Amino acid sequence: MELKEQCIKLAIVDDHILFRCSLARLLAGFEDCRVIAEADNGREFINGLNAANLPDIVLLDLSMPAMDGFATAAWLYQNHPAIHILMLSMYDGDQSIVRLLQYGVKGFLKKDIHPDELHFAIRSVVQSGCYFSQEVSGKLAGLFRGNHTFGMVTERTMLTTQELAFLKLAASDLTYKEIAQRMCINLRAVDGLREHLFEKLAVKSRVGLAMYALRQAIVAF
Fold first, then answer.
1. Residues of the chain with CATH 1.10.10.10
2. Domain 8-144 CATH superfamily
3. 8 near 37, Cβ under 8 Å?
């Protein structure tokens, strides 16, 4: 894309209305950017997509109701892979970053960055295909250090669908018996999942599981 000839079309998906409106006004001040869509969550964004006027980049929050950033990124990766995804969130845990990479996310920024870095990141994603802040780049380097393949990294850090489901329920006020009923498994299987995650995530209690789920944006505050 020639930035001098064509503006970068942006969509903002974030459930914090004040932040979203402020971000839209900020982006309107960039001469090479134009906000063409705003949405409160992934479901609203997807339902409002116009095939004749798709955004070049989606600025996507991670923790949202109805359809969060993970699910939205996965859907875009499958249905509109040409749309670049730039995560804009306060969450930057290892688990989140690896999952988002698998969903085709091209950049990850914290919400406390300077506007100049945001502008640079948007241009970088369009021109070179990706942008990660220095902090996130350091995390990625740490994940891959000593590993020779992406598979080795994801094997160590990724959670299975069943593990994610259990972790979300474990962060609620449900009893383990109720969790077993929700997951349609027996109580012994729940005990096995719990002990396995204690070891895998290096935590010692259900509170530790809940704190991990919050840090990784697997559940919202």
1. 159-215
2. Response regulator (3.40.50.2300)
3. no
Cβ atoms of residues 109 and 115 within 8 Å: no
φ, ψ dihedrals at 216, nearest 5°: -90, 5
* Rounded Cα gap, residues 178 and 184, in angstroms: 10
Which residue has better confidence, 137 or 166?
Answer: 166
Query: Is CATH 1.10.10.10 what the domain over 159-215 is classified as, yes or no?
Result: yes
Name the DSSP letter for residue 105.
-
* pTM for this model (two decimals): 0.67
Q: How confident is the model over 59-90, as pLDDT tens digits?
A: 999 888 889 898 999 999 999 999 999 998 87
* Contact (Cβ atoms closer than 8 angstroms) between residue 158 and residue 95: yes
* Nearest-10 Cα torsion for 115, 119, 120, 124: 150
Terminal Cα-to-Cα distance of the chain (whole angstroms): 39
Where exactly does CATH 3.40.50.2300 map onto the chain?
8-144
Contacts by residues 34-40 (CB-CB < 8 Å, ≥ 24 positions apart): 34/7, 34/8, 34/9, 34/10, 35/10, 35/11, 36/9, 36/10, 36/11, 37/11, 37/12, 38/11, 38/12, 38/13, 39/11, 39/12, 39/13, 40/13, 40/14, 40/15, 40/64, 40/65, 40/66
Q: CB 31: neighbour CB atoms within 10 A?
A: 8
